[in-house]
Amino acid sequence: MRATRVAWKRSGVRQKLIKPANQLTGRPTFPVKAVRYKGTPSIDLKGGLRIVRKKRSVSLTGLQAISVAGKPAYLRGSAGTGKVNFFTVKGGRRAFDAKTGELSRVGYARLTARGAKILNRRLGIRRNKLRAGTVWGYLNLYSLYKVTPVKDPTGETPDEPAVKPQPAGAKPIQSTATIKWYVRDSFIDYVASGLGTTVGDGATADPPSGAKNLVYSFNFPFSSGWTVPESLDSPENTLIKGSGKVGFQYCRNTINFTTSDPEIEIDGDTNSRLIFHVNGTDGTAFPDQRAVMVKLLPSQAESHRVNGNDNGTTTVNWVKIPGFIPAEATGIFADFYPAYSPDFDGQDPRPDRFGFFSVSYTFATGV
After folding, report:
1. Domain parsing of the chain, residue ranges
2. Most buried pick, 7, 38, 78, 103, via CB within 10 A?
3. 211-243: per-residue pLDDT in tens?
4. pTM score of the predicted model
5. Can the peptide bond before residue 31 be classed as cis, meaning omega within 30 degrees of 0?
């Protein structure tokens, strides 16, 4: 627009785009990031603007269009502080169809007084300042927000488990060689139909395997732990804490949660379990808290070895302790899996099974 170019030239400013904003259509285009129509309709945009003058520049990020029926629209952004209405859109036309989820807004975007003040100050413009009301461009906004109704999970949220107390005389764990979680194969196959799995905060995924070439096992860094070794009179009593995060997403079917910071409790078949910090979002009815996610039966592990080392340490190795869905965890899976029960003995596959867990660790024998 000629008037816009003249105003920019007079003030010595240029405009650049911050990706993923682009000019593939011949004019600045910003992909829609998120849409909210309820209350005050707002559309978040990806990318941003960088206003440049000589060696100075101002980046406008977190762009958000606000469009309320019967009122001027605003284009907001952050220039390093809070959100500011940089442009106002008057005139033009607004169209909204709640049934189809379509909202459009067109009109001239003009610089606001607050926006002009920030740009003039940050860019060091003292003469030929940018003025409020300067036409910055023509806004052509279109967003589509379609919602498919789903049946939300009905699982109840359990009480948060107490932290396992450390007995007197427990030996500190010096290091671990592995903290590995083998998730139930069928669950991995299922969420792979959606967005699948993700890892973060130091957790790592094993290479894809199987006929479907998917990731079925995950590894967690060691944080801390203690152990009371097994004896003739009592089983091993151990707590190992790890870090890292694994996420599961099949949002269309209301599955969207993360599991992080595992706590492995080994204390016979009755008291052994795997605790995660679980955070359920979208349709997954589970809060951001620690939760018992897997019941462990150490007596049924694929192998268990205790080896004394020459340096005065002992290494304990558990391979594939079978996991089961405890009653406390059925809500995480929307009651899709039944809780552990001896009544399922002999069934293959067991409906209450949920993968395996392997861990090996070392402690000083004389401590």
Report:
1. 2-144, 171-364
2. 103
3. 889 999 999 999 999 999 998 888 999 999 999
4. 0.58
5. no
